[in-house]
Amino acid sequence: MESLMSMEAFVSLLNLKAREFLMERNADVGKDIISTLPDSILLHILSFLPIKDVLRTSVLSTRWKYLWASISNIDFDETSNNFPSGMRASIRDSVNKVLLLHDPSSIQKFRLRSRRSVSGSRLNSWVSTAISHKVEELDLDLPVLPSFKLPDTLFTSDTVSILKLNMEIVFKVPRFTRFSNLRTLSLRKVKFHGNQYAEHLFSACLVLQELVLCKCVLVDTTRITISIPTLRKLEIRHPLPLDYQLYGCCVTVCAENLISLSCKSCAVVELVLSNLSSMKDAYIDEECSGYQDNEFSRRVIGVLGGMHNVQSLRLSYDTLQCLAREKNLQASLPMFHNLIHLKVIKKMYDYTNEEVLISFLEKSPNVKTLELPEVWVKNIFPQCLKSCIKTVSIAHFEGWYREVLFLKHLLRNSNVLEKLTVFCGKDLARDLRKLNEINHELQAIHSCEIEFRKGFKRD
Q1: What highest taxon heads this organism's lineage (predicted)?
Q2: Are 345 and 315 in contact (CB under 8 A)?
């Protein structure tokens, strides 16, 4: 189905470009459209297709036979379910041919995804060839031997602006590394031995704006610093598996221009945030089940302290559960004077820790927008709800008595509320009579705008 959709999209785009081309030249629409299109337009259209579909166009006509050899986007994805296993070897040979026989023009993107490993020598050759053709985006996601070494030419490329690696390799960064144009760097499952390689890599990224570190392993080090003045967006997920026994490793983030930060399962290390005064958006998702001490909650509080200037914050259910372990949470939490938007995210069958959420709201005196995953049971409402919250949305609403009761208490304690949005389950959404009854009861309490929407809100 995926290939069929790709070809349909290709035909649609081809017809659109053909019409635009002919209209610009006042050409006769009845003529052979494909033959009148210049190679530049056909190559632009081909750049949107996976390479297996690009190669299929070679049988259309003589005009198309060798056109694929000049494409600028080489997108090779073996993980697709509709990819015939018998074609894998021939397709890989074709990728090899595309790279080796490519004309001198630049390659904008080279993307390789596979569940099977490629020989180190072949992969090294492909990457080297792509770099020699001034590739701008390099995306490698495949299993390789731990001893695989990326070509040295990659580390001095002045054209690579996006680099994505999902490979379980030991990442050794040469001393001469210098990325003068790299703006996005995504590393997954990469292993760093000692802190010198990682810190040298970060310092060599002169204009980096987005950094993703997922399941990256630190070995033989207890401290690492991520200092990137140009960084705007940072995502850290599962930074250190516990089986490496580096519990307590300190990761310091220093990025004065950082705007967005996402942390997931980072409490296994000591994450220190320094000089993040520009940050506007943050997402914290911490899992601490299975750990008996309150060390994880202390670390999460430390991370929150480093982002106290944030304007928009998303907290997961697991994070609230982790904070619940802190005995004196109200005193430990920092003040969030700039926080305007607070959202709590939970899994379908979890229950939000109301006491922690209320403690958090008490530390956020200027919140104006609040997104809740469900109603809470206790009728305790923080001061900010009475004085400054103007918009509230609630998900997973089924219309049960206790849920309606919560909405009534909410409206009675919301002095400045302007809009309440309720996301309903499918059974309630079909029961218009019940919805009208609930709406009528709520409107009698508060004159704010009340909207019921069908379906649970997705994150």
Answers
A1: Eukaryota
A2: yes
